Amino acid sequence: MAKTTLSFVCQNCGAAYGRWQGKCESCGEWNTLAEEDTTGATSAPVSLRSKRKGRTFQLESLSGKSIEAPRLSSGMTELDRVTGGGFVRGSVLLVGGDPGIGKSTLLTQATSIMARAGHRAVYISGEEAVAQVRLRAERLGLADAPVQLAAETSVEDIISTLSEGAVPRLIVIDSIQTMWTDTVESAPGTVTQVRASAQKLIRFAKKSGAAIILVGHVTKDGQIAGPRVVEHMVDAVLSFEGEGSQQFRILRAVKNRFGPTDEIGVFEMTGLGLREVTNPSELFLSERDLGSPGTAVFAGIEGTRPVLVEMQALVAPTSLGTPRRAVVGWDPSRLSMVLAVLEAHCGVKLSGHDVYLNVAGGLRINEPAADLAAAAALVSSLVNAPLPPDAVYFGEISLSGAVRPVAQTSARLKEAAKLGFARVVLPERARGEAGGDAGLSLNTVGGLTSLVADIAARGTPRARHNSGRDDGDVSDQGRRSPSHAEKNATPARFRRQDG
After folding, report:
1. Is the Cβ–Cβ distance between 187 and 179 less than 8 Å?
2. Residue-level pLDDT at 491
3. Residue 99 annotated as binding?
4. Which of 3, 24, 203, 381 has the fewest CB atoms within 10 Å, measured from its CB?
5. Cα dihedral across residues 471, 473, 476, 477: positive or negative
6. Residue 224: its pLDDT value, please?
7. Buried b (16+ CB within 10 A) or exposed e, 229-255
């Protein structure tokens, strides 16, 4: 009889220790070590191991015919875009997201569409009963889809059941934290169980050719819970993002062995489930507050798709000893750099102001091309000067204050022209890439100083209660109201109808 082996395993990174300690030396997290029985996961002593010799296998050269991995379309364009064109046979995907964000709804819709197309689709729920899954399907209008359901958590029983009959084309395991295997004595949800259960399911997928989607819980900071080794074991890691108070949902590929990792899929949560958004730019700009200072439209690129999104900034005098810097949807270090360049090269004094920056719609921007739009929104809020509502901004700001060109300028301009914008503020050296886009007025800037001076020239005085505060030196360069023509230059589809 094997001797019981107890060890303390970090629930964040999977590192094992012989005794308990407060801090994990591997990942640096505190109070994450939990006692687990690792008898089944511990290798036997060398003297008791099998003495069999390793078998030989054939080696091949690099040259040869490469066969493209066959894919199966999910029937949802946005989901296929993120996965790289569909599900690859024998692949395993890990989908993570906040509780209630819509992971189960998305996968229920995907399995139902594939089942209606004649493919065998199986949905295994470890957290909900079959009746609860049926209620969701009825709410989504998918109750007639021939999806095979089960409420089971034993990995051995699941594999044994799925091995009978035709091989399923798509299997959903919701969620991997609820699965357990007989080979490990730990409780479900622990690092050892999650790792062992995932390994068995991955072996089944590679052997049978079925595509498996594993649903994973996330921690408070948005990371997928459990050991990071599970993310390395699977073929793709998808993150389902969004704010619970908004209807927008974004599916992003964090890792993908069979496709790009910079594509996003945009969905809208409705009463009948998730609706695919074919034109996310128009959706992100539908609730614009026109004529307000501190808002700028950024023309960004997400994968191969151009996306226009509104960046909102608020600069207010601080009552604290240390001004507050808060940013949502953008890199905080980029904001700090833009603020430093504005103060060092443009004379914009922000050391006595609180700064808030937000990307509207719940989208997260990772490219430095948003520097110019963020700087324009910040200066606009500081001097109380609304930006032209029919203008878009993009460009990277260097530490010297110069505005550098960015990639895919033509795609950004085409998206702006399609949505009815009339002018574009872009780097001076990007004019050659712009080409002859009809209907767009190109305003090139070589340095950030010229842009700041142009915005400050249109600034207007703030309310009386702020007259005694320092609004920044740049606000004194000129104050005049925006012209009537600028206010009426907004595309008709983006005008807010009051009353």
Report:
1. no
2. 46
3. yes
4. 3
5. negative
6. 64
7. ebbebbbbbbbbbbeeeebbbbbbbee
Q: Is 478 annotated as a binding residue?
A: no
pLDDT for 126: 93
DSSP line for 429-452: GGHHHH---TT-EEEEESBHHHHH
Rg for the chain (alpha carbons), in Å? 27
Residue 150 and residue 132: Cα distance in Å, rounded? 11
Residue 16 gets the label, from left (phi > 0), alpha (psi -120 to 50) or beta, of beta
Provide the pLDDT for residue 488: 38
Token digits of residue 388: 């032209």
Helix (H, G, I), strand (E, B) or coil at 403: strand
Distance CA 315, CA 360 (A): 17
CA 15 to each of CA 5, 80, 473: distance values in angstroms, whole numbers, following the listed order: 15, 35, 54
Q: Position 110: which residue type?
A: A
Spell out, as residue ranges, where the chain has pLDDT lower than 70. 1-6, 37-52, 66-69, 219-228, 244-245, 434-438, 461-499
How far, rounded to the nearest angstrom, does the alpha carbon of residue 47 sit from its chain's CA centroid? 49
104 annotated among ligand-binding-site residues: yes
Distance in angstroms (rounded) separating the CA atoms of residues 308 and 304: 13
Q: Tokens 């069979």 sit at which residue?
A: 258
Which of 438, 417, 412 lies closest to 491, judged by CA? 417
CA distances from 352 to 272, 395, 453 (A): 48, 27, 20
Q: Which helix (DSSP H) or strand (DSSP E) does residue 157 occupy?
A: helix 155-162
Could you give the C-alpha distances from 344 to 174, 350, 371, in angstroms and in order? 52, 10, 16
- Do the beta carbons of residue 478 and residue 399 sit within 8 Å? no
165 has binding-site annotation:
no
Q: What is the pLDDT of residue 481?
A: 41
Residue 103 annotated as binding site = yes
Phi, psi of 307 (to 5 degrees): -135, 130
Tokens found for residue 87: 């599900």
| pLDDT tens readout for residues 140-177 | 999 999 999 999 999 999 999 999 989 999 999 998 98
Instruction: Identify the bridge partners of residue 6 per DSSP, sorted by sequence position.
Output: 37
Residue type at 45?
P
- What does the alpha-carbon distance between residue 497 and residue 495 come to, in Å, rounded to a whole number? 6
If phi over 0 gives left and psi between -120 and 50 gives alpha, with beta otherwise, what is residue 303?
Answer: left
- Is 286 labelled as part of a ligand binding site? no
